[in-house]
Amino acid sequence: MRRQLFWSNRVYGGELTSMKSSIFLPCAILWLTLFSFLGCEPDEETTVDAINLSFPTGFPEPKIPEDNPLTVESIELGRHLFYDTNLSSNTKQACATCHLQEFAFSDGKKTPVGSTGQPLTRNSQQLTNAAYNGTLTWANPLLKDLETQILIPIFAELPVELGVTGSEDEVLSRFADNAQYQQLYADAFPGQANPVTWPNTVKALASFVRSLVSGNSPFDKLTYQDDPSEMSESALRGMDLFFSETLECHHCHGGFNFTESTVHSGSVFDSSKFHNTGLYNVDGFGSYPVNNQGLFDVTSVLEDTGRFRAPTLRNVAVTAPFMHDGSVATLEEVIRLYEAGGRNIESGDLSGDGRKNPYKSGFVAGFTITDQERNDLIEFLKSLTDDEFLNNPAHSDPNP
Ligand code: HEC
Ligand code: HEC
Predict the structure, then answer these.
(1) Rounded CA gap, 174 and 169, in Å?
(2) Which CATH number is 99's domain given?
């Protein structure tokens, strides 16, 4: 059965696999692969390889900043930088230390430590379709573009991630003095006398992250490609539950990217939305653990306590452990929390009944389902796994 659940059903094209640009590509997909040649006439002289990108049918165009066009060359530079430990001051970490392709660019840990050993309080986010996120990180309405967000892991001092502050010149010289990087920067930023700069480094990383687009899961095949063959009966039943008014999941995890915090080139709605799902209630007045109170830490408004961005559920079956602090181990546990209408922690420092958190969203009221239905819902979440994305060589370490 074909089900159309989303606002956009425009067709941009299927998978692109190492096509030459001299091959005709429909105008509609040119923006992503060959943004720099915006005319729709194929350029016979150009021999740039289009990237091996799983480009989803039915997705709208993401927002791309005018001063950072998405080109094959900037994505390639960004990919090298993303996997290079030379990007950290002490050469111990790369972006890829905390964002691993096999885990949809999360890291499989509850919370990571930075390059100097400082612990972080938040779970490493997965990066599937980050290009479409209306706000970035778990709870920050001020971070709206990748070029701004990426400054944090590179330069932040509390806590240190890559720890570059204080050694900016030294770190940059590692790339400026390297022949391969000289070429990669020159290709990505042509016509510049000295392209090896921090702004260009950040732009290239943002382009690579923007290229991490996933939309070829069994669910996508059913919904956009009229191919139900990979959806089990159980996953189909789970899909009906997911989109039902009893479970309410789709209110916060709706749209083509399974989060209402979505922007694209035609967006008109404000996508800065954050919710308290009743994970904690440490003092009985709604508090979350200190220094990890979600939106409240940015706004200091009490009602914002425990409010976080609903993450995309694409590839969620490979991104355990879950939630902003990695405190939920399995998908079954996640669903049981929603069934209960929050989490009751009975003992220890963090004890408290999250079900009674005064700031909890009205959509997390609890519901009753059978064991079979719970399994069906898990099977549906698994049908959002895009194996092609997780194994796409274009997203992998260029120097394994
Ligand atoms: C030490 C681990 C670590 C390193 C290194 C790291 N990250 Fe992250 N990343 C995280 C964590 C943790 C979060 C969530 C932060 C938060 O919510 O405060 C995150 C969030 C993000 C996000 C936001 C995703 C979203 O959906 O909003 C992006 C994009 C990102 N990182 C890209 C990068 C890039 C690019 C690099 C390298 C320059 C990098 N990260 C280095 C741990 C890390
Ligand atoms: C009121 C909005 C809302 C509703 C309704 C909702 N969620 Fe969520 N969901 C969130 C938020 C916000 C988070 C992150 C919470 C946190 O980290 O504290 C989340 C996290 C998750 C995660 C963990 C994802 C990750 O990467 O860690 C899963 C899985 C999930 N939700 C599935 C569901 C399912 C299934 C339903 C329906 C039964 C549902 N959600 C209903 C807002 C919602």
Answers:
(1) 9
(2) 1.10.760.10
Instruction: Spell out the alpha helix ranges (H) of the chain.
Output: 27-33, 72-82, 95-98, 146-149, 151-155, 168-176, 179-188, 198-210, 218-225, 233-242, 249-252, 296-299, 331-340, 371-382, 387-390
Same domain, 255 and 357: yes
CA torsion sign for 32, 36, 38, 39 is negative
Whether the predicted pLDDT of 232 surpasses 90: yes
Is the pTM higher than 0.85? The answer reads yes
Structure tokens at 362: 């009205």
Query: Could you tell me the maximum CA-CA distance found in the chain, to the nearest angstrom?
Result: 69
Q: What are the Cα distances from residue 40, in Å, to 11, 17, 36, 71? A: 17, 19, 11, 15
- Record the tokens describing residue 165, joined without a space: 């502050």
List the end-to-end C-alpha distance of the chain, in Å, as a whole number: 42
Q: Say how many domains are in the chain.
A: 2
Sign of torsion, CA 121 126 131 134?
Answer: negative
Exposed, middle or buried: residue 346 (CB in 10 Å: 0-12, 13-18, 19+)? exposed
For ligand 2, residues with CB inside 6 Å are 247-249, 251-253, 275, 277, 279, 308, 310-311, 313, 316, 319, 322-324, 331, 334-335, 338, 361, 363-364, 377
Domain extent, residue 164, equals: 72-213
Report the mean per-residue pLDDT for the chain: 87
215 lines ligand 1 (CB under 6 A): no
Q: What is the mean pLDDT of residues 361-376?
A: 98
Strand partners, 344: 353
